Structure formats: structure tokens, C-alpha cells
Amino acid sequence: MALQITDLVKRYPTGTEALRGVSLDIAEGEFFGLLGPNGAGKSTLIHCTTGLAQPTSGSIRVFGHDAIHDYEQARLAVGLAPQDLNLDWFLTVEESLDYHGGYFGMPRRERRERAKELLEVFSLTEKRDDRTRTLSGGMKRRLILARALMHRPRLLILDEPTAGVDVELRLELWHYVQRINAEGTTILLTTHYLEEAEQLCDRIAFINHGDIVAQGTSADLAAEYGVSSLEDAYLELVGRKELSRAHVGADAA
Amino acid sequence: MSAAQIRFFALVRREVNRFMKIKRQTVGAPLLETFLYISVFGAALGTRIDKLHGVDYVVFIIPGLIMMAWAMNAFSNNASSILQQKFQGAIQDQLSSPASPRQLLLAFSLGGFLRGMLVATLTFVAASFLVDVPVEHVLVLIPSLFLVGFFFAQLGVLIGVRAEQFDDVSFAQTFVLQPLIFLGGVFYSASLLPEPFQTLTHFDPVYYMIGLVRYGFLDYSDTNVALSLLLLTAATAALFAVNLRLFLRGYKLRA
Question: Rounded mean pLDDT of chain A?
Fold first, then answer.
């Protein structure tokens, strides 16, 4: 199992319960989607998995390694491309990759080769010596993904990777992540774009109010909610079925 | 190098890289500041002040200035670096790496420590061109300066981790550190102070630090050298223990 989350609870000191006993299994090689409205607990789940948040209770295992007690091995296996463009302003594009590789214990020569390869793949070679703050939004997004891939993670976590990117870059990113998934990398994707989840993911889970409320293939989810599409299933989840295209179409007619 | 060593080295390199990229501000400005202190207090005012404990006034203040340079740079570097990275979210790259809390704490500490060492060394070299700076007890001086640097590096980490805005850092620097350092006797000998200020000075930890460093350079100290060294070691170890506990808990770093 690539990721095994059992009864995960995260309660913040303010009393807010962001995760209320989440259990989730993602198999090795799977492309898994996590959908839910803002504040549902998607990012908290990711943060607990990557050590950015500390779970209140429950367990997280990454390729069998406990994310709390054996965090070193667990984190080595994970690459995180966060939702926020959290690049270090003081570093250049190439340094961002090089330092990240260093944090993950990669020797110098390997870092150089890998950085060169990723700069090429993400069309950042010409920008290698530019400070990250001077990059356009799309380039920052590409660099975030390249950085996440730098240490060759077996589980890649993409937290809304295509939020605010243009169509061209979105398609580029889709192609790339599909390719690395086909090469064996397990992927956990959160997104607000339902067609993205539908097109890329083998299985999808709906998360709401800190709970996984349904999971399965896109067709399974539609069947579970008794509707014809993933979008309608999602609208059922968030209690906004009046927004369904079927309803809107019928009303217009 | 092992993976853990590569990781630690990368964390330290990042901190050094940051201050070297803005070296006009992080190295140039403190050097100029120290040069101005030496010029104004030493060369200008100092000519009108008698020798203090057998040495020229300008020479008397240089140990304190070197120590102050190390202390202030170690502190402000770490406090600013950590707070900036928290603001940008860039610190998540280190926090989600396999680096242990101990490695993270030591690497963040070393950034300021090394910047302080660089500025203090350059200050010493520059001062040596202007006046003859003796080094009487190198075996007391080096450990003392290292302890002072590490103490203030730890303090910078503590404030940086706790801070939620830049005002928190500048408050600590302007309203706590600067008065403690100035009133600890950088520019004068505490033995010259009238009561109750002479006694009050004994409650200022920086007084003992300056005593040690001055003894290392000039063979003169207002304080008991062995006791000061012991107190400084204990204080530095205690502060490191506090920070390590915070890092192990992920205090204000991990949600």
C-alpha cells in the first residue's frame, strides 16, 4: 500500500476538528483523487502526511513507514507540490532544486543531473539562474512540481496543481503526471476541477467536514448518489443539486 | 558524506546563501556601524577620555564591539530568516524533508552564528588596522565568543519561531537586546558606575559576556572569569534545550 491512513483525527488548538477519523488506502501505482469543498480537510490531510501538521490521533503509513515514528523513511518516499507557491525568494530556480535534493540527502552529482533533467522537462533551463520571485505564475507552478519530483518520490502529492494556470500549462502538467504515473509513481491529487479528476484518477474520494464520505471510481460515485455524472454526485455532496446542469437545462427549457 | 550529512550541509548552505546574497545589508551595514562606533567613541571622544584600566579607551571598547557584532548579527539573522521563511511558506520545504528537528534547529542556528562570526572577524581585522588590539588569553577568548555567538543564535531562533510579524523581532531587538548589550558595559567599565547602577548591572547577563571577551583580549575583566564562563555555558545549554523542545513539538512550525 502506498498510503494507508487509519482513523486520522486532527484537532487544532482552537478546537476546530479538521479531520474526524479519516481512513483511506491508496494502492501502489494508483492515481487517486481527493475532492471536496474548501475547508473540507484536503490540505490538512496532506499536511499530516508530509509532516507539516501533527495528527491528534490515528495513523499514517507511507509504503509501510509510520509518518510520525519513522518520518525519515516516510518523507523520503513523498514529494509534495503544495497549493501555495511557497518558493524561497532568495534562491534561483536551479538552487531551489539543488537545495531540495540536498534536504533529501542526494549527492551533489546526482542533484546536478536530476536538476538539469527537470529544468529541461519543465522548460525552465533558460531561467535556471533567475531568482524565483521573478518568475511568472505558470513558471512558479512548474518549478513547484519539478521540486516535488527532484528526489524521485514514489508517492507524489499534488495539492490543486492546476489552480489558476492556463489551458496550455494545465494540459502539459496532465501529460507529465500521467506519464510518471504510468512509470510507477503513485499520485494523490486534490483538485476543484472535476473533469481533471475524472480524466486522470483511477479512484476518487469525496471529503467533507473532515470525513471521507464516499469513494470509488467516477461511475461508482455517480451510482452511489443516484446521478449520472461525477459533477452531479459532487453537487449532491455539497448540497447544491439545484446547480446541476440537468436542472439548469430543464429549467431553461 | 552520508545522507544525513548532505541534508545538514544543505540546510546550513541555504542559511549562509541567504545572508551572502544580501551581504550589503547583512555584512556591510554591521561593519560600517562598528567602524562608526570606533571612529566616534574611540577616535573622536576617546582622545578626551583617560586610559581605562591601563588601556586606551578605543582599545577598551573594541572587545565589546566585536562581541556585540557577533551577538546582534547572530540574533537578527536567525530571527529574520525564520520569520521570512514562515511568511513565504518556503520553510515547508525543509519541514517536509526527512531532516530531524535537531538538524533543523542546528542548521538555523548556524546561519546566524556564521554570519556573526564573519562580521566579528572582519571587525577585528579592520580594528587591527586602526589600532593595536591585543589578544591576551586566546583560550578564553575563542570559547567565550563561540558561546556568546551560539547563545544569541539560539535567541534569534527562539524569537523567529515565536514571532508572527516583523514587529515582534524588532521589538525584541530594540527594546530588549540593545539595552542589555549597551548597559552590559560595551562602552564603559561597570566599575565606574555609581550605585545602584553598578549592582543592577550584575543582573544583566551581557555584563558577564563582555567581561569574558574583554578578559580574553585585554587581560582585564569586571567579572569573575570562571564563574562567567560557567554561567554562559549553562545559559546557552538551557536555551538550546528550550529550542530543541520547541522544535520537537513543532511549536509554531508544524500546525
Answer: 92
d(CA A186, CA A188): 7
Give the nearest chain A residue to B8 (CA atoms).
Answer: A103
How many Å lie between the alpha carbon of B29 and the closest alpha carbon of chain A? 19
What is the maximum span of chain A, computed from C-alpha positions, in angstroms? 65
DSSP β-bridge partners for residue A140: none
Considering the domain architecture, whether residues A56 and A163 belong to the same structural domain is answered as yes
**CB–CB of A84 and B100 under 8 A?**
no
Asked if A105 and A124 count as a contact pair (C-beta separation under 8 A), the reply is: no
Q: What integer pLDDT is reported at residue A228 of this predicted model?
A: 84
Q: Do B13 and A105 touch (CB under 8 A)?
A: no
User: Tell me, what CATH number does A198's domain have?
Assistant: 3.40.50.300
* Range with lowest mean pLDDT among A246-250, B53-57, B77-81, B165-169: A246-250
Q: What digits encode the pLDDT tens for the residues B109-120?
A: 999 999 999 999
Chain B residues with beta carbon closer than 8 angstroms to that of A84: 89
Residues A128 and A223 in one domain: no
**Min distance B214 CA to chain A CA atoms (Å):** 37
Same domain, A64 and A2: yes
Same domain (yes/no): A54, A170: yes
ipTM: 0.91
With contacts defined as CB-CB under 8 Å, which chain A residues touch B93? 86, 88, 99-100, 103, 147
Same-domain pairing of A51 and A111:
no
CA atoms within 13 A on the CB side of A241: 11
Q: b vs e for A119-152, b when ≥16 Cβ sit within 10 Å of the residue's Cβ?
A: bebbebeebeeebbeebeebbbbbbbbbbbbbbb
Q: Which domain holds residue A251?
A: 217-253
Tell me which of B96, B104, B247, B252 to substitute to probe the interface with A (most A C-beta atoms closer than 10 Å): B96
Which residue, A111, A131, A152, sits at the end of a domain? Answer: A152
Pair A106, A168 in one domain = no
State whether A39 and A17 are in the same domain. Answer: yes
Pairs of residues, one from chain A and one from chain B, whose beta carbons lie less than 8 Å apart: 88
Q: How many helices (H) and strands (E) does chain B have?
A: 12, 0
Question: Looking at CA atoms only, how far is residue A71 from chain B in angstroms?
Answer: 7
A103, B13: Cβ pair inside 8 Å?
no
Bigger pLDDT: A167 vs A154: A154
Number of domains in chain A: 3
Smallest CA–CA separation between B247 and chain A, in Å? 12
pLDDT tens digits for range A51-76: 999 999 999 999 999 999 999 999 99
Residue of A90, A151, A157 to mutate, testing the B interface (most B Cβ within 10 Å of its Cβ)? A90
B129-B135-B139-B143 Cα dihedral, nearest 10 degrees: -50
Shared-domain flag, residues A227 and A243:
yes
